[in-house]
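Margin note from the TA: students keep mixing up input and output lines. Inputs are the sequences; the output is the structure of the whole complex. Example:
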Amino acid sequence: MSQSALAVELKGIWKRFPGVIANSDINLKVTSGTVHAIVGENGAGKSTLMKILYGMQKADEGTISINGSDLVFNSPSDAIDSGIGMVHQHFMLADNFTVLENIVLGSEPKNGIRLDFAKARKQISDIAAENGLAVDPDVLVSELGVGDRQRIEILKVLYRGAKILILDEPTAVLVPHEVDELFNTLRDLKKEGLTVIFISHKLDEVLSIADEITVIRQGTTVGSVNPHTQNVSARDLAEMMVGNELPTPDAVGDTIQDEVVLKVENLSVFAKGGKAIVDDISFQIRAGEIVGIAGVEGNGQAEILDALMGIESASGRVQFKDEDITNKSTRHRRELGIGFIPEDRHRQALMLEAPLWENRMLGHQTKAPNAKGMWLTPRSAKADTKRIVEEYDVRTPNIDVLASALSGGNQQKLIVGREMSGEPKLLIAAHPTRGVDVGAQAAIWDHIRHARQSGLAVLLVSADLDELIGLSDNIKILLRGKFVADADPATVTPQELGTAMTGAGEAA
Amino acid sequence: MTYLKSRRFIGAAFTAITMLSITRTITGNGDLTSTVTIAQALVFASPIALAGLAGIWAERAGVINIGLEGMMILGTFGAGWAGWQWGVWAGVLAGVIFGAIGGLLLAVAAVTFGVDQIIAGTAINLLALGLTKFLAILLFTNAPGGGQAQSPPIKGEIPTFTVESIVEPLTSLHEKGIFFISDLAGILAGLFYNLSLLTIITFLLFVMTSYLLWKTAFGLRLRSAGENPWAADSLGVKVVQFKYAAVVFSGMLAGLGGAYLSIASTIYRNGNTAGRGYIGLATMIFGDWRPGGTAAGALMFGYIDTLRLIDTGNQNVKGLILLGAIILFAIGGIMLRRARRNSAVGFLILGSVMIGAYFSATSFPPEVAQVAPYITTLLVLATASQNLRPPAADGVPYRKGDHH
């Protein structure tokens, strides 16, 4: 290793929250002018650590030194002043503001008390041109897609003169070719002498971009590797993250039966103005089959799922086994044995301010073990909630805590457990493992595969293309509300799938 | 952009005057666009406009201010009491300060403690109503010229201006009754007739708000607190301070609006606000949380209020009905062109009913005019609400460090 100076050095960082130790004795050295990746499972404490480094939270113990001098950050402004900038996982943008307004907010160029729009515009286009980040400063952010939004976030940070960039799971929302663009940008920034701290749990990406990788497990740093000099594989990293050997994904056996469980004909969903969001699609799923839908978010996935559940009104015909359920209520559909894991768990799957066992009843409130006749049966519902908590490894002190007290990954495990209970015939699932860490992800996949062997039909929507390819028997590519192509999961690569999803090339 | 904006403004003003002119010609009622009417409309519009402006400040910073009515009530009381004691300008000052206290109360409840903003605002309305009634009994009952429900007269007057060289020729032009020209003349003359200094201050506050909130760094930061406070916080904007500043200033503006009311009627009287705080809120929504539209909405309310009050021979209410019908037909026409048939049919039927009423009835109860502003608001909100763009985090409690 060269003798370059350290841009960031963290020594002995501790952070405790009531009942949880988020960071314990974290030590981290980031060399100036490198891309340094921090990897770890969900809930390993990566985000807390970065919030501490960015001044959003204060460490209980430990020191932060930037470019060799010890500093104390009381707020993000202190961090910004020391040349640290953060690109958040959930974009921090005001939709009703223009790109320019979002970028200059908090450090506006002024002319008297007036905001100097002309100067701001010039500064932004200069920085944008230098770093190859094309944006129009005068459009509203609400009109932009995720790739553009991320560019704005990076511009925001560069505009403030940041020399150290923190990117919190930047690729989670991007399709593969956008990831390539982002990585090119990061390499350019590195050439300009900037330091990038890159947080991720996608190990292939980390290996392709990082100069050094630090692994965090259960709140503490367990080691650093240099992918240029050491020979490490994604699997080695994963095992460092999890702390033991990974389960191997099973070879997929053919379990497809003859019986058609779901038959959809000419399904369309229209927006208020009459525009078709889902445009005349037809498909069917047999027992024991998993059909995956690949598509960039916002191309109609959510509407298809809602229409199939009877939440959204749609035209066309939906048949479940032998029954035409086109005009049947959501409750009727659920009682037939259709499980539903929605895209937005806070909006559709949980009552955040209710205990876990009440959430266990939600959506299954007419059936055992939750009800008998017109009476609810809390006792057996509670017992069954305990079963789910154990089988699906939901980390919770007990089943009386509020759903809002669980981390996102644990909430998701509870939902999956609930929807897989009572032997569903059809599972409609959106991002079943979103926010869930590596170990639990494998467990959820196993549950789905197992149920499928006994005849479960699954409609799977996922932004995780590896998941989609690994689980599905058949992948349909959705673009602007239409199925534009099919892909064979046995042969397709995530890159090919990503290209097809954006409509950029031919389907694989 | 400015070019486009001014063109839109001129277009809107042109349309409004044309409609008024058509109505005036059909009814033959010169009062509809007379100098006096317009001058009085400005007096009625100003307190509502101030309330609306107060709403803009609070809600642009992300705090819904249902408490406007209460803050206005505090303002009317402050102005009545201090005006009686020390004169009219002391009254203005006291109105502003009392309103600010109401604003501070809302800020403490809604910003610091994260109380539901609707409930906090409603509490302030109830509190202000009860408190002022109590204080009125306590302070005014035995005062000469006062009573249990009203203060003694406010001492002194706010200066008013009449520019004779403009008003006189324009007024005589108005009396000639030429289509459009005379109406324009009457309206222009009204702007320079008995113009109160407080009205000028109100106008300047609107100009200042447009500039401060949309052209300065201060304004961008304040609005960021209403659009995405978490993003603002991550960039070092002191969100809580901005919210406090905005809500307290909102209270000051509402208090000034209340003071305007008391001074216009020369005394404090229980219930003098008569829901103008809520109407202010409605004009703010009508105006898409922007000063220009809010001012237009306030002028509309002030104008209708005026016609109702200076109604001789029940002609103005009739005129209003016809004007309403014309507006409904116009909106219906626009809807038809935008291929929204169902709404269009609704507007056209309603318009026809009003036309029918206009030609069949000889007189209308004045209450019809009293409810007209509210019906107008409902109609406007029903048609325009799809295009409104409220601050994204309006009404959302914000705690530092939280994520949404």
